[in-house]
C-alpha cells in the first residue's frame, strides 16, 4: 500500500467516524463525558468496519 | 386526550386497521403492499403519541420500527420473489401517499419541537422511514428479482 492509498483510507475512516459520532450525539438522551468517550470508541470500531465493508463490496 | 393523540388514534385505527385488513385478505400482491404500508402508518402514529404524551423517549419505538419495518419487507420480497415476479405489486400512489404522510408528520413535529438534538433524532427517524419504505416497495415491485437476473 502506498502513501496515497493509506491517506485516502485514513480519510475514509475519519469521515465514517464523524458521521457515526454525529448519529450517536443525536440519539443519546444527555451528552456527558462518559457518553462522549463511549460514543467515540464505538464510532471508531464502526468506522473501521464500515470502511472495510465498503472496500469489500467495491471489489478493490 | 389532545390533538396529537387524536391524530395518532385516527392513523392507527384508520390506517393500520386498513393495512391489517389488506394483509389478511386478497391476492399476494395486495398483501405485501399492505404489509409494507403498515410501517409507514404505524411509525408516524408512534411519533404523534410521543408528542401527545410529552415523552421524548417514546420516539425510540418509532425509530426501531422505521429501521426494522423495511428490513422485514425486504425479507418478504426475497422469500416471495418468484411469486411476486409472476404478479408484481404496483401501488405507487399509495406508497407515495404513505411516505408523504410520514414526512409531513416528521416535519410538523420538527417545527413544533424547535431546533435541538431531539429534532435530529426525528429527522433520522423520518429519513429511515421514507427512504426505507421507498427502497422496500421498489424491491417488492421487482427490484430484487431484476438485480438477481441482471
From TrEMBL, chain A:
Question: Please, which domain of life does this record's source organism belong to?
Answer: Bacteria
Which keywords does UniProt give here?
Membrane, Transmembrane, Transmembrane helix
- Spell out where the chain crosses the membrane: 7-30, 36-57
Protein name as catalogued: Uncharacterized protein
Q: Which organism is it from?
A: Streptomyces albiflavescens
Which lineage? Bacteria, Bacillati, Actinomycetota, Actinomycetes, Kitasatosporales
From TrEMBL, chain B:
Mind telling me which Pfam families this protein's record contains? Answer: MrpF_PhaF
Could you name the domain of life of the organism this protein comes from? Bacteria
Cellular component terms per the entry's GO annotation? plasma membrane
Q: Does the keyword Chaperone apply?
A: no
Q: Which residues form a coiled coil?
A: none
Chief location: membrane
Q: Where are the transmembrane segments?
A: 62-81, 93-112
Q: How does it sit in the membrane?
A: Multi-pass membrane protein
InterPro entries, from UniProt? MrpF/PhaF-like (IPR007208)
Q: Where in the cell is it found?
A: Cell membrane
Molecular function GO labels: monoatomic ion transmembrane transporter activity
Q: Does the UniProt entry include the keyword Hydrolase?
A: no
Sorted keywords for this record are: Cell membrane, Membrane, Transmembrane, Transmembrane helix
Q: What is this protein called?
A: Multisubunit sodium/proton antiporter MrpF subunit
